[in-house]
Amino acid sequence: MWKLRSVVDSASPVLLCFFVAVAAAAQGSTTSGRKWQTLTGNAPLVIARGGFSGVFPDSSSRAYQFAVQTGLANMHVWCDVKLTRDAFGICFPNIRLENSSDIANVYSQRRNTYTVNGVLLQGWFPLDFTLKELASVHLQQGIYARTPNFDGTSKLLSVDDVVSLTRPAPLWLNIPYATFFGEHNLSMRSFLISASRLMNISCISSPEIAFLRSISPHFKKSATKLVFQFIGPDDVEPSTNQTYSSLVKNLAFIKTFAAGILVPKNYIWPVDRSLYLHHYTSLVLDAHAAGLEVFAYNFMNDVPLIPYDYSYDPVAEVLSFIDNGKFSVDGVLSDFPLTPSAAIDCFSHLGKNDSVKAKFLILSSEGASGVYPGCTDLAYTRAVSDGVDILDCPVQMTKDGIPFCLGSINLKDRTNVAETKFSSMRTSNPDLNISDGIFTYDLTWNQIQRLKPAMANPFSNYILFRNPRYKNRGKLMQLSEFLSFASNSSSLPGVLISIENASYLAAKQGLHIVDKVLETLRGYKHQAGKRVVIKSSDRAVLEKFKSYERSYIIKEDIDDILINSTISEIKKFASSVVFSKKSVLPTNNALFLTGKTAVVPKLHSFKIPVYVQFFHNEFVSQAWDFLSDPYVEIDTFVSLAGVDGVVTDHPATAAKFRRNRCLGYEKLPPYMTPVQPGSLLSLIPNSSIPTAAPPPPPADVVESLLPYALLS
Fold first, then answer.
1. Per-residue model confidence as pLDDT tens digits over 593-615
2. To 10 degrees, the CA torsion angle through 352, 355, 357, 361?
3. Exposure winner among 125, 200, 272, 353, fewest CB in 10 A?
4. Mind listing the pLDDT tens digit for each residue in 491-516?
5. Rounded to an integer, what distance in angstroms lies between the CA atom of residue 26 and that of residue 32?
6. How many CB atoms within 10 Å of residue 348?
């Protein structure tokens, strides 16, 4: 007989105000008016695996509270049920407690060994402890890529605790080890039957057929769905002794005891060893034909193994399962339930011609360089197709004085030059603070054309690589070719030409980049109304382009621009300013937002637009507050900080964000609302608060004029 006891932690008022702007906003969506290719025709469900386990420890009170506050109104909360020695049901993600808790420290002498599904395992198991004993155990983050700063802030929860915390959210109980507990005289069947008398259970899933059949007579199909979970294709289901890959071919049999199936997402979209998608399988269509709903799992925003096809865009991945024109799964199980909530309500069934809801500029960073090698015809074509507003060309100079587009003066950063005969030309340049480089000004254009462009991988240290299948594809462009391409792109509003190192090139290499750019621009037959922006961190460069729109880039992270005279001085030579993300929303050393600076409102008071760089899809580039979701980051910078443009190597993400329908709702839902800087940081115990970052440089960042003689 199972028992009830509460070990719920007190709710944090700060957690409840993470999205303070929507405290009174309705969580309802307009998904009911759209046509869905689910079995029922209704919108897919979102199931929060252990709550918001992508940020907080899995199955913790904060994880469950945060999930309920930020997801769709009908979001289901997922509990992996394990049984204690005294027959209490607890929610915990693993059969071994040490994987996501501090139990090894609390009960260091109570490690045990069991055979679980035919495998000998050693560790700390829930059936060796009473619930009272487990009250002194605290939860920890079980995935090392995630922040550990919330470890120890929550105790283990019973199933009843989770119901109390999340009511009225529908409850999904997952039972992965019914046979194991039964072997030790703990009946999961009895637990569920007793629990159903005291709480509403919307779904029960299990990978064990005999268990689902045993409980089927005790649950009304109209009230509780039984869902058969598929695990690894080569794993063996214990009661039938068949592999799951063979069972998936017999959906009619599964329909005799289950209303749906829960499958790893690669059962639907297979992924090859090189991390590219194969063609989708017929599983969803076949299951629907058999009358079975299909729920997909393993959706995580922060796992490096997301297929390259999605360019690290977690919303794009969800959409491929729910809005592909062929089928839709009936639900997704996610560690980051805010993301599929937004995908379903805000981003599904959108077209490229849907109206823009957010007014900000999208400026490319070397074109769509998150997808193709930067500054190539492929990257530029993709950026225009994705909806970029301002297409950029960072200008470099060749030995024979030809300006061309490349993201670095060091060819090693953006080409395969180190693998060619030119590798012997390596040298160091203390003036540019570059060691062991091969420089554009040392090769002619003819020589550079023989090189292959190379994909920039700014997060390779985290084993995050970009589209390796295309890592050396595309063709580099001279500035004149870039301008011709832009002129012929009727949907492109403007271009940006970035100029750096002008003083050095003129003085040390005899290459006058400013003159060459001006000369090329004079021959540019641009369409009427197309913008031409010159960007530089060098005031002297911008002074030379008085007939063009000018953007001043401040490369240092700053905390504020306090002096009005500084802004007035900037306005003399620039019509916009580009800042780093940290200059607008600073973070500490542990990547938590600490607040919001006055940089944007100060510049706006002088009618100077503010652009911010760089926005990437990769989760490691974002503060923890953004929940490993690039759309949350963009939303916060645009809606909360008020920036006028974002510089990004993934223009498609920004373009999709500003077309999402939720921005047009009278009341924004919580999954489309900017975060409040500092709110997550305030939840961290004092003993775990990260060390403060060093102070930024002084606010007065306007440089003195460089000698004009060096530029002409």
1. 999 999 999 999 999 999 999 99
2. 60
3. 353
4. 999 999 999 999 999 999 999 999 99
5. 15
6. 21
